[in-house]
Design brief:
Largest interface: A-B, 39 and 39 residues
Largest sheet of chain A: none
Structural class of chain A: mainly alpha
Oligomer: homodimer
Helix content of chain A: 55-70%
Number of helices of chain A: 10
Chain lengths: 262, 262
DNA sequence: ATTATCTATAGATCTATAGATAATGC
DNA sequence: ATTATCTATAGATCTATAGATAATGC
């Protein structure tokens, strides 16, 4: 073997600064992630399954393989931990929404389809049912207002795109807001579907069977609700928009702290 | 005044057996309700707003006007309190669903419309956002399995009705379950709409602006999702079914412990 | 005697802080 | 010296039980 550094990542001795941990890594392969990300991953699972108040900092740190107090080196409080998780949840959909709003060459129907698709796919495919985090009652606390503002912007994006569709011309006054709400609610139905899955069938957490197919169904249903009469064409162009966006974002470094290796 | 007992309810001296309370009634006119119902009403508000784990038994009893330990005379545990609330939440919709399934003379589309309507109206119009209770992560605990079974039966009722519609004949394999899920999710979107209302606009809890109109919109949207092509007729007959049911249930003693006087 | 409350408290948490300590880095 | 952990603990909870008590009912 003449070339020494064949696989620099695997060879890395993983020696770290600071006092070493004592607690063993409990299961789920987060061994060599950043401690901060280990905490986020542990909290994501526990918060979605048990809720925020029902999850102790002790439980989170045990899952992340460290002692309770060590959490406070990485996060100022338990609330800050939830804040971070919440923001990673809306961010991707919101980025797509803003891009889609600017793509004025594409039909509004296609952009709406694509937004519903991307948003639903993210909700359906995430390792834990992260969307359920914003159903947690604790999220109404003042500490989470910044996150709620992000979510309100996402909701408005749906309304704007819907307002640009051909069907919207015939809407009665107030009907736009009404229908936009229904569409937004339909997409968020993915969260509820996952809750039901977990409640009634799979004891273990997990994504819906086929997120890609499911999210396309949801996007179809969204256009049906909008009153769009040329679903086929909109879906076709919508798919292209999704593909284009995914192509772009793959060039970026995908910083998804909660998505563990596999 | 010859006839002595003019208004027996108002004249009732309200003297009660047992040691009297010391704690004052805090606000909301539940003064002369049964203690058990006062506790349920207090818990309904606090659980929906703050969540289950975040609500202490002390907070519940303070709102109901008694001391913390007195709760345990009426409920064996905090979990039992939530259980009672959960069951009062699904029961009305489920009763309607079973009646509608049996009404085989009416068109399936109309019965589906009516079920969506009744269910959505109940979710939209309840004093507190009681539907949100079954989004509480704690509801996954074993203690709440009986409630989850009720909810599963409601979900199946939607699927059965949808399966009897004309549009269902053309569904691909698996499409029935898929669409039924979307419809069920759409109706539950009412819960999310109320959460959003509370998050973003009204600081106080409260029902959606016009539950009757809103729930009719949701029922329309449900039929649109089903692929029904004769919405007008179905809606017409659906309205009649709703009216018939409401007529019936008004003859019964309406035992809704959580709906306070007004 | 029965009922529905009360007071007091055991025992088990839980969050966050203080300060010690075991690594690496320079 | 810096970093990332550790141990220990203060202080504030929280749920549920034990047993006393103040009403009504008979």
């Amino acid at each position: 073997m003449p070339t020494a550094a064949k696989d620099p990542v695997a060879d890395r001795p993983k020696r770290r600064v600071g006092r070493p941990r004592i607690a063993p890594e409990s299961g789920g392969g987060t061994q060599d992630a950043e401690p901060r990300d280990q905490l986020l991953a542990a909290a994501a699972e526990l918060f979605t399954v048990q809720g925020y108040s029902a999850t102790s900092t002790r439980a989170i740190t045990a899952k992340a393989g460290m002692r309770q107090a060590s959490m406070y080196y990485h996060f100022a409080s338990k609330e800050e931990l939830l804040s971070s998780l919440l923001e990673t949840t809306v961010a991707p959909s919101l980025e797509f929404a803003e891009w889609a709003l600017a793509e004025r060459d594409a039909a509004a129907e296609a952009r709406l389809w694509a937004l519903a698709r991307i948003d639903a796919a993210q909700l359906a495919g995430a390792r834990h049912n992260l969307g359920a985090l914003y159903l947690l009652p604790e999220v109404r606390r003042e500490a989470f207002a910044p996150f709620r503002a992000l979510r309100a912007r996402l909701s408005e994006s749906y309304r704007e795109l819907l307002g640009q569709t051909a069907a919207a011309i015939d809407y009665a006054p107030g009907e736009l807001a009404q229908r936009a709400h229904l569409v937004f609610g339909l997409v968020e139905g993915v969260i509820l579907a996952r809750l039901d899955n977990r409640l009634d069938r799979h004891p273990e957490s997990g994504p819906l069977a086929d997120p890609a197919a499911y999210s396309a169904e949801v996007a179809d249903a969204a256009l049906r609700l909008s009153g769009c009469d040329r679903l086929g064409a909109a879906r076709e162009q919508g798919r292209r928009l999704c593909a284009e966006w995914i192509g772009r974002s793959e060039h970026l470094p995908s910083a998804t702290p909660t998505g563990e290796s596999a």
